[in-house]
Amino acid sequence: MSAETGETEIGGAETVASETVGDAPKSGLLELRDLMVVFDGFKAINGVNLTVGEGELRFLIGPNGAGKTTLIDVITGLTKPTSGTVTFAGTSLIGRKEHQIVRMGIGRTFQTSVVFEELSVLENIDLAATFRSPLVRLLRRRRGVSDEVAAALETIGLQDLADRPAGILSHGQRQWLEIGMLIAQGPKLLLLDEPVAGMSKDERERTGELLTEIARDHTVIVIEHDMEFLRRYASTVTVLHEGTVLVEGDVAAVQADPRVQEVYLGRKKEDAA
Amino acid sequence: MSALTRGKALLTGKYRGYVVFVSVALLLLAVAPAALDPFRLSLLAKYLCLAIAALGIGLAWGQGGMMTLGQGVFFGLGGYAMGMHLKLTEAGDNGLPDFMTWSGVEELPAIWEPFRNPVFALAMVVVLPVVVATALGVLVFRQRVRGAYFAILSQALAAAFVIWLVGNQGLTGGTNGLTNFYDIFGMYPEEDSTKTTFYFIVVIAVGVLYLVARHIVRSRFGRLLVAIRDGEDRVRFLGYNPATVKTIVFATSAAMAGIAGALYVPVVGIISPALLGVVPSIELLVAVAIGGRFSLAGALLGGVLMNWARTTFSESMPDGWIYIQGGLFILVILVAPKGIAGLAGQIGDLVARRRALRTAPAPAPEPGVKEEVPV
Ligand SMILES: Nc1ncnc2c1ncn2[C@@H]1O[C@H](COP(=O)(O)OP(=O)(O)OP(=O)(O)O)[C@@H](O)[C@H]1O
Ligand SMILES: [Mg+2]
Description:
- The complex is a heterodimer.
- Chain A is α/β, with parallel strands linked by helices.
- Chain A contains 12 helices and 10 strands.
- Chain A has helices at 2-6, 13-22, 68-75, 98-103, 121-129, 147-156, 171-184, 201-217, 227-233, 251-256, 258-264, 266-272; strands at residues 30-39, 42-52, 57-61, 83-88, 91-92, 106-108, 189-193, 219-223, 236-241, 244-250.
- Chain A has a 6-stranded mixed beta sheet, with helices on both faces. In chain A, strands 2-1-4-5 form a 4-stranded antiparallel beta sheet.
- The radius of gyration of chain A is 19 Å and the shape is globular.
- The two termini of chain A are 36 Å apart.
- Chain B has 15 helices and 2 strands.
- In chain B, strands 1-2 form a two-stranded antiparallel sheet.
- The chains are: A alpha/beta, B mainly alpha.
- At the A-B interface, helix 4 and helix 5 of A face helix 9, helix 10 and helix 11 of B.
- Bound molecules: adenosine-5'-triphosphate (ATP) and magnesium ion.
- Magnesium ion (MG) is lined by residues 68-69, 111, 193 of chain A.
- Residues 39, 42, 44, 62, 64-70, 111 of chain A line the site of adenosine-5'-triphosphate.
C-alpha cells in the first residue's frame, strides 16, 4: 500500500487524500470520512479522510488557513460539517452538542487559551474534574482536593500557584492549566490547538515533556506550526493544505516530501526566487 | 493586644463577613424595632422586601451574568398569588372579591378558586415564578440568547405582563391591582403588632435567603456559574451545559422575586401593575448595580438604600429623583463598577494592608492576589 503513495506524482492533492485512507486499514478511535466544510461557498475542509488509532500521538500541520482548527471544531461539535462523517469509538459525532461530545471523552484546548480568570488555578481544574457529577452534588462546597485534581496539578507543575487566581498566570502557564483541566477529566482523546504558540524556548521544552507524558496514556492530536518542536516530539504527522490531506507519514518522510516543502515551506522558495 | 486592635482584626481579618452579618442581624432584629415607630418599621420592611428581589438579581446578574430586566414579572406573580388568597378570605357574601363585584363579574373565575387554599396559594408564590422562569430559560438559553438580547426579552415579558394585567380588569383588578386587605391570616394590617410581626418575618426571610444565596455562590455550582458568566463557550467544552445551569439560577432568582412580592403584599397592602412593570424592574437592577452586583450583600444594600432614597427624595422633589438615580447609575458604571460593596471591600483591604505593614513590617503582602471571597 505504501507503494501506491509513490505513484501519485500526477494525481494531485485530492487523489493523495483518498489514497491515504488505504494506509489505515484497521479502524481507528477517531475516523473522519469525506469530510467537507463549506463557509459561504469557501471550502475550508475539502474531502478529508483521517484515521487516528487508539494511543496514537498525531501531529497535524499545515500553513495558515489550511483548515486545521476547522477540523478540530468539527470533531468537537463547534462547527457543523457540510457533508461527511465523524465517528469516535464507532459512534457518530455529527449533530451532537459540544458538551455531549466532551462527555464521550473528547477534550480540546483553543488556539487562544481561555481559563477562568476569577477562579483559582485549583478551582479551574476542580471545575473541569467534576463535569460528570450531577449538578445537585455541585451544590456542596469543595472540601479538600480530589486525587485526579491533585494529579493534574502535579503533572502541569502549577502546585505553587494552586490558590492564585488564574488571571495572574502567564501565557505559557495558561496553556498548561488548560491541559491540566483536560487531563483531570480523564478523556480518551485530546485535541490541542497550537499549544506552544507564543511560548519561550524553555516553555516549549516543558510543554514537549508534558505532551510526551500525556501521550503515554491518552490518544492525542496536536496542531503545531513549529518545525523544531515537530522534529523533537512528533512521530506520525498529517499535513493539511487547502482543506485536504496532502501527506501522512512519519516525521522524517513528511519533511523530505517535496510537496510538503512546496506548500509548507513555500516561503523559503519565494525568498530564494 | 488592646480591645481596639482586636476589634480591628475582626473587621479586617477573615472573619469580616461573619462580623458584618452578625452586626447587621443585630441592627435589624434588635436596634431597628426599638428605635423606629411601627410606621417607619413597616417602611423598612418594604425596602427589605425589594432587597430580596435585588438579591435574586445579584445572583442571576452579578454571579451568572444574566442581566434580567423583567424581575417585576416574578415579583408580581408572587404578589398576586398572595393577594388572591387574601382577597378570597375576606370576600363578601357572594364569595367574590370586592373589585369583581364592582366590575360586574358574577361568578368567581376558575383560576381563582384554588387560591382559597392557603397552602396552594403559598406554594404558588414560588411555583409560578419558577415555572415561568424555567420556560423562558429553556427557550432562550438553549438558543444561546444572552447579553443585551436577553435583557430586552426579559423586559418585553414585563411589559406584556403589565398589559395583560391591566387589560383583564375583572380577573386581576386592572390598574388598581389587588388592595384593601382587612384580614391577613387573622391579623389586622392597621395594628402596630401586625406591622411589627411582618417586619420580623421579612427580616428572617432576608437572612435565610441571603444564606441560601451565599451557599450557592460558595459551592462548586457557584464557581461553575461564575465560569459561565466569564466564558460560557469555554464551559461547554468542559462538558457542562450552560443553558441548564443558567435556567436553574434564573429560576432561583425568580423564586426570590416571587417571595419578595408575596411578602410585600401584607407589608404594604397592595400589589398592582405599577409596581412590576418595566420601570420598577429597571430600577431594581440599577439598585443592584449601585449596591454592587458582584456581592450579595451589595445587592441587598442597594435594594434597601435605593428604595429608601426614592421614598425620601421623591417626597421632597418628585421630579428630581429620576435624575439622581440616573446620575448615580452612570457614576457607578464609570468609576466604581463593583458598586458600594466594591468600594467598601477596597477600603477594608487597604486598612488590612496598612495594619499588616505596621504589625509586621518585614514581608509586605502582595497586592492584587488576595483570593476574593464574596460576602
Ligand atoms: N466561521 C468561519 N467562517 C468563514 N470562514 C472561516 C470560518 N472559520 C474558518 N474560516 C476560514 O477557513 C479557513 C481555515 O481556517 P482554520 O482556522 O481552520 O485554519 P488553520 O489551519 O487553523 O490556520 P492557522 O494556522 O492560521 O490557525 C481559513 O481560510 C479561514 O478564514
Ligand atoms: Mg488554527
